[in-house]
Amino acid sequence: MSISLKGVPRTLGAAAAAFFTFGSPRLLAVQLVVAVALRPLLGAPTWRDLAVVVGVAAYWPLQEWVLHKYVLHAAPLRLGSRVFESGAARAHRRHHESPLDLQATLLHTWTIAVLIPIHVGLWTLLAPRGVACTGVMCLGGAALLYEWIHFLTHTAVRPRSAWFGEVKRRHMAHHQRDPRRWFGFVVPRLDDWLGTGGQ
């Protein structure tokens, strides 16, 4: 059986144009632009800002792997004759069933619309204003980067870097060979270190 790539972006420009037609990337981009614009108005960066940058860089790949493995691939829970499944796992199963449906590669717009105020509120409660803004910038930027990388792996754009070639190869193996392996994105080698890599 052959899979039609009709309508799937083949160039980086076409992929970017398609990506920003969807709501979740636009909301994440607005959050990032606002945070970048506000940060200089909130004082000079300190060592705390650096700690946030390093912390987010260490945290993001691990939480990405954990959520993909344990939340998005969670098995339905059966209680008697009833079956319960999270909306996230159900949506991710649909994504596996239709990997060329580009909208299904992205988080729902409503999910991002709910998470952004929670995200901003938590940072504001937990850190001084400047550091909170750095946190919003870093985590929001990481989320946008994740969405873009995942979206791009499902297009017909050919990788131009060894890193993206590895990301795409592993993610396609996750879809086509074994959905119990290759959960990482930003740091694809994480699967090797956590025992979910493969040949």
Q: Which features characterize this protein?
A:
199 residues, mainly alpha, two-stranded antiparallel sheet, 8 helices, 2 strands, 3% strand
What does this structure look like?
By secondary structure, this protein is mainly α. The chain has one domain. Helices cover 62% and strands 3% of the residues. The chain contains 8 helices and 2 strands. It has helices spanning 12-19, 23-38, 47-72, 87-97, 109-126, 129-153, 162-176, 190-194, and strands at residues 77-79, 82-84. The protein has a two-stranded antiparallel sheet with strand order 1-2. Helix 2 (23-38) packs antiparallel against helix 6. The longest helix has 26 residues, at 47-72. The mean pLDDT is 92.
Question: How much helix is in the residues?
Answer: 55-70%
Tally the beta strands.
Answer: 2
Content-based structural category = mainly alpha
Give the N-to-C terminal Cα separation: 24 Å
One letter per element, helices H and strands E, the order comes to: HHHEEHHHHH
Total domain units: 1
Question: What's this entry about, in short?
Answer:
With 199 residues, the chain is mainly α.
Helices and strands in order, then pairings?
Layout: H1 12-19, H2 23-38, H3 47-72, E1 77-79, E2 82-84, H4 87-97, H5 109-126, H6 129-153, H7 162-176, H8 190-194
